[in-house]
Amino acid sequence: MRVALGIEYDGTEFSGWQVQPKQRTVQGCLQQALSKVANHSIKVVAAGRTDSGVHALSQVVHFDTSSERPERNWILGLNTNLPSDINVVWAREVDDDFSARFSAVRRSYRYILINRVGRSSVHADRMWWFFKPLDEQRMQDAANLLVGHHDFSAFRAKDCQAKNTMKTMEKIKVTRKGDCIAIDVVAQSFLHHMVRNIVGVLVLIGEGKMPVEWAKQVLDSKDRGQGGITSPPQGLYFMNVEYPAQYSLPTVSAFPVLW
């Protein structure tokens, strides 16, 4: 049988999603717990990889198993065997044609900044502290220039291995709530560091160092060297993955109080 899981994790103490030798990774911890609960070795496929320090509120994975368990038992058994910074939210048996990665039609990320003079001890690993004033309207105006189907070569990491750099950006929304700024980004798929590099460009524009039109100039250059800084990982959250309705997967509410 094939089973899909919805998981959340605090990425602070992980060396990213993907299994790496002698490193603590989300995939490694999850596979270890799954293999124990299922009583045989299991490998998982994820909707998307996250870097060291990046969090997830609704990562989706699938795995194949010969062990039959009620959905509730998968959840309880896994959470008993997982560290406190990973949690299984839901489990669902799915058809064999389901792929957490390839069946996804839309992925959503949120980047959060705390924009004030004083740093935060509570949110140090949850938000990017930026002490200079940011103009969120300028950031939104610049973000609008990146929406649509474009070559995002200028916004990918230097070691990105993707063969196709054309992506369709469905939405970039900048919202301020008091001292906090959220940047919501939606597309079917993303390049390595793409969201963090977009945020880096928007912040320089919001700070007033660069004009709004600079976002389009960076995009058109197709050159990573023309872009701004790569924003730090702790402000980034993998928010949601959407799949065709035929799979009837659960949805997870995230940040219900703030946004």
Total strands: the figure is: 10
- Distance between termini? 37 Å
Helix content: 10-25%
Number of helices: 5
CATH class of the largest domain: Alpha Beta
Low-confidence stretches: none
Question: How would you portray this structure in words?
Answer:
- With 259 residues, the chain is α+β, with helices and mostly antiparallel strands.
- It has two domains: 102 residues, Alpha-Beta Plaits; 133 residues, 2-Layer Sandwich (Alpha-Beta Plaits), CATH 3.30.70.660.
- The protein has five helices and ten strands; from the N terminus they run E-H-E-E-H-E-E-E-H-E-E-E-H-H-E.
- Strands 1, 2, 3, 4, 5, 6, 7, 8, 9 and 10 form a ten-stranded mixed sheet that branches.
- It is globular.
- It starts with a strand and ends in a 17-residue tail after the last strand.
Summarize the structure in short:
The protein is α+β, with helices and mostly antiparallel strands. The chain folds into two domains: 2-103, Pseudouridine synthase I, catalytic domain, N-terminal subdomain (Alpha-Beta Plaits), CATH 3.30.70; 106-238, 2-Layer Sandwich (Alpha-Beta Plaits). Helix content is 21%, strand content 27%.
